[in-house]
Amino acid sequence: KMLPRIVKLAVTDVRFPTSLEQHGSDAMHTDPDYSAAYVVIDTDCGLKGFGLTFTLGKGTEIVVCAVEALARLVVGKSLQEIVSDFGGFYRLLTSESQLRWLGPEKGVIHLASAAVLNAVWDLWARAEGKPLWKLLVDMDPKQIVSCIDFRYITDALTEEEALDILLKAREGRKQREDQMLREGYPAYTTSCAWLGYSDELLTQLCADALGNGWTKFKVKVGADLEDDRRRCRLIREMIGPSNTLMMDANQRWDVAEAIRWVSSLADFKPLWIEEPTCPDDILGHAAISKALAPLGIGVASGEQCHNRVMFKQFLQASALFVQIDSCRLGSVNENLAVLLMAHKFQVPVCPHAGGVGLCELVQHLILFDYICVSGSLANRMCEYVDHLHEHFASPVVIRNGHYIAPEDIGYSCEMLESSVQSHRYPEGDVWKANTSKPEVKMDTF
Amino acid sequence: KMLPRIVKLAVTDVRFPTSLEQHGSDAMHTDPDYSAAYVVIDTDCGLKGFGLTFTLGKGTEIVVCAVEALARLVVGKSLQEIVSDFGGFYRLLTSESQLRWLGPEKGVIHLASAAVLNAVWDLWARAEGKPLWKLLVDMDPKQIVSCIDFRYITDALTEEEALDILLKAREGRKQREDQMLREGYPAYTTSCAWLGYSDELLTQLCADALGNGWTKFKVKVGADLEDDRRRCRLIREMIGPSNTLMMDANQRWDVAEAIRWVSSLADFKPLWIEEPTCPDDILGHAAISKALAPLGIGVASGEQCHNRVMFKQFLQASALFVQIDSCRLGSVNENLAVLLMAHKFQVPVCPHAGGVGLCELVQHLILFDYICVSGSLANRMCEYVDHLHEHFASPVVIRNGHYIAPEDIGYSCEMLESSVQSHRYPEGDVWKANTSKPEVKMDTF
């Protein structure tokens, strides 16, 4: 077992021109270029750690700048030093007394913390020779708890309660691990129905997905009600009444508008409406949830829920499908807090994924959730989007609508060096060939 | 009347080494170097606009980078174009489809939006030849309302309600304006009792402040209970029972701890406890507020309340002293929304100030609040801190514990060119003389 010391942290602005084909388009993000601030940690023993945070193109350079500001807190530390008090290291990064003004624990600086911490977790898993989910599964509950910063959440979950949850869930753990290795974790696909896709493309992608064993589908809504009704009818007819349909509005509405709009889509029987309004609006989500409950429609949110304190309140205020994000929250550390709180409040965690690398990362967390925390698959599934996996050294494997548990060591977000080089912004080949594009997009906003 | 077009937006990283003397030290921010991302707008007619956002030192370069990303959305626009649909321009900046992922409307990207929009408001006031508060006071209520983005707040305040509030408050407006010009707006001082100050310094500063007519004082608490009791007793004895004392914990506690700690400071009769816990914890603040109400202690928050949607929920969940911030929120536009919501919920607005430039900026907003929105001074006062004003072209004027209404045109945040040059980071003379300092501070964190 190696105990490496971190000697260098490098960060790269990597962008993919996804907006050219309207991949990822929704009611609020009309032309995303899926991007990442990509972190590589070097150690004194040759072992590396890879991490990233996901962005939508413009502004990735700001996150890169923030990672550089945090790097000074990481370089020089040994892995042992970090993981022996990982909760303390988390706080060192997220509560540095001058930098915290820029958040605290939100926005650019928190996305940057996530990229850095994801790389540290990757390094740790590699040092232990395990995939990250297995590192977590094998970890002593006390050590799991020591990775969490409980500041500001003890009114919802104490350290003792967290430990108790983990100890109770040890029963049946081995069987659940075997089950995951055998069957994988249930997934749903968002790839069929981006807002910018034509009806023809939507129909074709739905048919293909059904053929590949998918049973759970998400459709983007919120730009135009008649379009939404047409698209939802189309997809519900394609998938039939017994498959699962979710809807995603990407923050398009105010509270009253959300209730009205979703009520008029109730015929199509969605399991949930995702992000009906501002991701900061805890009380608004609670009001929407209460109004839609009689229609059998749940509310989901989380991909822009910026920290554990926000998730705590979402859980305190109403039931919610908890959509953790591996890069919005402060890496594994903060996601562990949210998984444990969600279990205490007995609501399902259904991770956000897609973008670039999010599927690769978050599959590890949801495997841990099933094996060591929730022990349940009821109303649970992990988002899947089938773009950009080819750029990763250990891409996700999907079989029959399930995430197959990763076997490669680490946290699965190492990118191929060739992909990094060609997609560096603005100097990579992909962008040199597209030089006029960013300006054009700005002007047409 | 000039109708300038913006031809250039420049931003500078300006830092003041305030940590050397523990100015600004509190339970969470032990060594702030008050800093700013300082924006200068140039126009085609020679008129300039000056704006800033406040930071604590490290990481200012990240905000500078974010301002540069936003500049592309501003340069080329005419002032007329912007102010004829200022709400729309606000949304253009804050909801740009790729950049919004980095917030939305929070953290670094929102601080940067504030800096840019502050400069635009300054430009507008200069173009009209008025101090900003007077520009607002003279503005047609419909135009005030058109500056606000009502997205996500219509469940608390509609455009019609906002207009109605402004129209009703026209009664007595002239008298209130005259009163402000005569007496100024009541202030309280935070300069006597920073956490890092010795008891001797605290005693001396208190005596000086009383001599200068101050009647309202704030003390920093939260690091050590016995220290807090000693310091609070000292200051209460100095100021006597009839003057006002506020306490500020700067986010130090969890919910239960906050209630316990503040309860044991109740003897010293604070008007409010400020930021008892995480600034994101709406429900936590409500629980603390409920527990402390029987002791006659209120709860205040806002300097890190990151947008109008958070303020909306704080107001919906419980009573609160609303501490608007001229740089945390999206400039005048978003602060107008919060002033109007606070009035609807009938709670006092007591702005956050201090840092560098915050007093200069926020005095304009609270003058507008009194003259055109709240019409009341009950339990209302604006924070004052007596540092760094000498670096501004039109520094605040305090007389007898009141902010004197500014007469100079603009938004008062133009810095002296000599100050900007000598405090540029890292190349200014002040920092060249202190080169080893940032590294030392990092290591001792």
TrEMBL record, chains A, B:
It catalyses: L-fuconate = 2-dehydro-3-deoxy-L-fuconate + H2O. Its EC number is 4.2.1.68. One of its GO terms (molecular function) is L-fuconate dehydratase activity. Keywords: Lyase, Magnesium, Metal-binding. Belongs to the mandelate racemase/muconate lactonizing enzyme family. ENOSF1 subfamily. It holds the Pfam family MR_MLE_C. Residues 199-295 form the Mandelate racemase/muconate lactonizing enzyme C-terminal domain. The lineage of its organism: Eukaryota, Metazoa, Chordata, Craniata, Vertebrata. This is Mitochondrial enolase superfamily member 1. It comes from the Eukaryota. Its cofactor is Mg(2+). InterPro entries: Enolase-like_C_sf, Enolase-like_N, Enolase_C-like, L-fuconate_dehydratase, Mandel_Rmase/mucon_lact_enz_CS, Mandelate_racemase_C, Mandelate_racemase_N_dom, RHMD-like. One of its GO terms (biological process) is carbohydrate catabolic process.
